[in-house]
Amino acid sequence: MVALRPSDDSALILEVPLPPGLERLRGRHVRDAIGEGIPAHATLLYPFAEPRAIDEAMLTVIDRIVAAHAPWTLTLAGLGRWPDTLYATVEPDSPIRALQAELATAFPSLPLYGRPGLRFEPHVTVAEGPGVDDPAVETDVAWSELPVARRVLEVLLIVREAGRWRTETRFPLRS
């Protein structure tokens, strides 16, 4: 496969709906949640390829990889923190790690977050930027909505056009 150039205008994700209170919190503290329409999600590959470079051969590779994985139940288990992010932790993490590793191997010129060798940590971002340093965000009652289970049935290829994210292609997990 020809080396692809990464683009901030596409991503492979698992859409993972948050409970209502956490979604409201995310809407206030994640820049692209409301303004750009990106759903709550666990990132598999971002940045992904330039949208115009995503061809049928790439879609076939993604589909083959995703279809080799069985659906599973993912649990948003609790609050996690990095210096610049508050997030919902993901359990079990082995199915998502395996899926992400295979996709990363298939597209070596598109490393996760543009940083080769970065360790993948499954999560769903709830706050980033200034909200992370606001103690009221970390202690918000919305975190008590966790744990919550979500069934994972597909991977989404999302693209950004004119400042808005939309689903380009859905790849079902093995039925």
Produce the secondary structure layout.
Layout: E1 6-7, E2 10-15, H1 20-29, H2 31-34, E3 41-45, E4 48-49, H3 56-67, E5 72-82, E6 85-91, H4 94-106, E7 123-128, H5 135-138, E8 148-152, E9 154-161, E10 164-172
Antiparallel strand pairs: 1-4, 2-3, 2-9, 5-6, 5-8, 6-7, 9-10
Description:
The chain is of the alpha+beta class. The chain has helices at 20-29, 31-34, 56-67, 94-106, 135-138, and strands at residues 6-7, 10-15, 41-45, 48-49, 72-82, 85-91, 123-128, 148-152, 154-161, 164-172. Helix 3 runs antiparallel to helix 4. The relative contact order is 0.27. A four-stranded antiparallel beta sheet has the order 3-2-9-10. The protein is built from five helices and ten strands. The longest helix is centred in the middle third of the chain and has 13 residues, at 94-106. It has a single domain (6-172), classed as Cyclic phosphodiesterase (Cyclic Phosphodiesterase, Chain: A, Alpha-Beta Complex), CATH 3.90.1140.
